[in-house]
Specification:
The chain has 151 residues and is mostly helical. Helices cover 58% and strands 3% of the residues. Helix 2 crosses helix 4. It is globular and about 65 Å long.
Length: 151
């Protein structure tokens, strides 16, 4: 009996999710995580994590959300979509490079400042708050509080 297209597609997706999970776990910007460490952070058993990594399990949405959150990733499609996976990993790489450069230079802290102050003289407070919200939403893929990843 041959596999139907949906079964083969499901198996391919399970293998892709497993590959992404293993990569994320072993290449995390805060250092490689064991399955046990990720299990502790997520509440998902090491056995379930192992089964997902090998593609022998069909994790439910709750499990995928727990794993993604445990990895510190806010984008739920991280394990499901290759483009999102690549984008988040690129951001993680930037975090690693920045941390390595700071360490190499002996930098222990830094602050950001604007080169010029915006002209707020003819703006009402609601307009200012709206611009701030827009800016924060655009920056959510960056870093916060000292450089920990917030993808």
């Amino acid at each position: 009996m041959s596999d139907s297209v949906p079964d083969s597609l499901l198996q391919a997706v399970k293998l892709d999710v497993g590959r992404r999970l293993k990569f994320a776990r072993t290449n995390h910007p805060n250092g490689s995580m064991t399955q046990a460490a990720l299990a502790e952070a997520t509440g998902v058993s090491t056995r379930a994590l192992g089964d997902i990594e090998t593609g022998s399990s069909n994790p439910n949405l709750e499990t995928l959300v727990k794993i993604t959150a445990g990895l510190g990733v806010a984008r739920l499609a991280y394990l499901l979509d290759e483009a999102v996976f690549d984008q988040v990993n690129s951001e993680f790489e930037s975090v690693r490079e920045t941390a390595a450069a700071r360490k190499e230079l002996g930098v222990t802290s830094f602050a950001f400042r604007a080169d010029s102050e915006p002209d707020l003289s003819n703006m009402d407070i609601n307009s200012i708050l709206h611009q701030l919200q827009t800016w924060v939403a655009a920056k959510q893929g960056g870093t916060h509080d000292g450089g920990s990843p917030r993808p």
